[in-house]
Amino acid sequence: MKKTKTPKKPILDLLPIEERWNSLVKNTLDFVYIVDRQGKFIFVNRTDLIYKKEKILGREAADYVLKEYRPIVKKAFNRCLKTAQPQIYEAEIIAVKGETRWFRSYVSPIKTSEGILALLLISTDITAAKKAEIELQKVHNELEQRVYSRTVELQKLTEKMAQNLVGVEREKNRWEAIFSNVEEGVYISDSNKRTITMNGACEIMSGWDEKEAAGRSYHEVFSCHDNQGHYYPDFDPVEKVYQSLEPIHYDEHLHTSRDGSERWVGVSYTPILDSEHLVQCVAVIRDITSLKEIEVAKSEFVSIASHELRTPLTVINGYLSLLLSGDLGDISDASKRMQHLQVINKIYNETRRLTALVEELLNVTRIEEGRIKLNLREVYLSEVIREVVSEFEPLVQRQNSVLQANFAGEEKPIVGDCDKIKQVLVNLVDNAIKYNPPQVKINIKIRPYNDRVEVTVEDNGVGIPAALQGRIFSKFQQVPGSYTKENKGSGLGLFIAKSLVELHHGSIELRSTPGKGSEFIFSLPTVAR
Amino acid sequence: MGKEKIKVLLIEDEKEVLELYKLKLTLDDYDVITATSGKEGLEKAFKENPDLIYLDIKMPEMDGFEVLQRLRSEEATKTTPVVILSNFDEQEMIEKGLTLGANEYLIKSQFTPEDISSKVKNWVKE
């Protein structure tokens, strides 16, 4: 039998349209709804997740989403109705078991010749994806939160660090300011006894600048001498600290600067220890040169003062011992009377000299200790000068000298201590007589000068050598060659005169030409201070 | 003819001190030469060839130390006994004097003229 071939038709064409639709709608996992123009369900393919089919038909689709999504749903429907364009939205619905599920819904218009009759709604359960998304979002949010809080923390930390840095900087600046401005030298060496740093005072004292000094030893930088001022090539006080690890609280050395100038320094050395190892040594160096100079000046003063005191004592004791031992004959021996009287006179002179010297030494001490008190009152200098002239008269006559005073112009009184001013004049006149040959002419002049009264004591004597003029007002300065004279001075008179004038806020100066004479000029203010 | 007197040179700028020692040494029968400055002292030391020199330290222009140095550097006075008579009692002064070649250093105020005079025989053999 012959089979007749029938032309093949596509399978789909074999199925009636309704069948096709039904099968599609039934078998799809998606939810397929049709809502009318009012958004009410008129068809639903499955209700397994939500309510029974009968119950939801006729109800508004928007009612089945959570409240907050309703506007989204309505909006999508309206838009679709209005524009005839498909819309898409996502919303959460309450499922049968009370749980919520996420759906993404596509809304498309069902158009006929009469327009849009209804809307086709296809909803896909995207709960899993949404959950993942939410989870992701949560993680993301958490992460963001964490990042945020970390950022805040970091920011706080940064701010704090910045503040600390400012603090550190301020501290550093403060330390640097102290370090560089302190009058003491501050020197630091490392564990190898090499210079790390030193301040400006050290630079001045050593003559090295910090950069040059770096890496060199303390000894090399300061060219150190020991406390007796002796230089030993290997003498290094810092070395002692490195060996003993003990501080040296105070030591005195003579430092030589690079330019050769010397200065006395008082130094403390402190080791900085790290457990038992010395890591740094800090030296604080104070320039005590001026203190040393005062010390030296004081000991020189004591030395010369005691020398000067011993000289008359030697003569007094010597002659007394000769008298007592009978070397000069029996004291009761009338034939020796003249010689005895001469000796006694010498003793008396030396005693007077000793007394005057003791007085002057005490005056110097009082002046230097600031213990001189001025008994201030109005003083007319011309009166004081007249007194002095008359007191010196006998001595002046013996020497065939001349002492006269000239008073020019109207005199203003000064405020001062009469006795002290007299002392100044006595010392000046006494010097003029003592250090000049007989027949010297001494003239005292007085004149007003601005707010001052100026007094000049001039003589036509030997003058004062130029080399001595600069230090004539210092202690124990005497003109060489003046020693052998009868009335030997102490070398303190001009120092005392200058000090007393300065106590009165006055000033004193010397003008002298060797061979022609000297002028001592002092002036005192006429107004009390 | 009698024995020649021992010749003592006194170098001292303090007139009173000089006269005191001169008086005592003369009383004790020494031939006393005086000088009131370092310069004069040196001149007299070389010219008079003394047996002993008493030398002061603190003198203007040329002090005793300088005089001593010059005395020791000259053949004529190299071995002449020199006794320093000074009122400086500082140890460093004493050491300096002895180092420069003084035979003795005496502090004036601690000795009577008699002590000073009796020292002559310690240094000069008759």
From TrEMBL, chain A:
Q: What does the record list as GO biological process?
A: regulation of DNA-templated transcription
Cited InterPro entries: HATPase_C_sf, HATPase_dom, His_kinase_dom, HisK_dim/P_dom, HisK_dim/P_sf, PAC, PAS, PAS-assoc_C
Ranges for the PAS domain? 171-217
- Keyword terms, alphabetized: Kinase, Membrane, Phosphoprotein, Transferase, Two-component regulatory system
- EC no. given is 2.7.13.3
Q: Name one GO cellular component term.
A: plasma membrane
Histidine kinase domain mapped to chain residues: 304-528
Regions that span the bilayer = none
The protein's GO terms of the molecular function aspect are: histidine phosphotransfer kinase activity; phosphorelay sensor kinase activity
Which Pfam family would be a valid example here? HisKA
Q: Where is the PAC domain?
A: 87-138, 248-300
Q: Which NCBIfam families match?
A: sensory_box (TIGR00229)
Which PANTHER family has this protein been placed in?
A: OSMOSENSING HISTIDINE PROTEIN KINASE SLN1 (PTHR43047:SF72), TWO-COMPONENT HISTIDINE PROTEIN KINASE (PTHR43047)
Protein name (database record): histidine kinase
Q: Which species is listed as the source?
A: Candidatus Woykebacteria bacterium RIFCSPHIGHO2_12_FULL_45_10
UniProtKB/TrEMBL annotation, chain B:
Record-linked SUPFAM superfamilies = CheY-like
Using the record's annotation, list all stretches that form the Response regulatory domain: 7-123
InterPro entries, alphabetized: Bact_response_regulator (IPR050595), CheY-like_superfamily (IPR011006), Sig_transdc_resp-reg_receiver (IPR001789)
A single Gene Ontology biological process assigned to it is: phosphorelay signal transduction system
**Record PTM 4-aspartylphosphate, positions in chain:** 56
Query: Keywords, A to Z?
Result: Phosphoprotein
Q: Does the keyword Nucleus apply?
A: no
Taxonomy, superkingdom: Bacteria
Annotated signal sequence is none
**UniProt protein name:** Response regulatory domain-containing protein
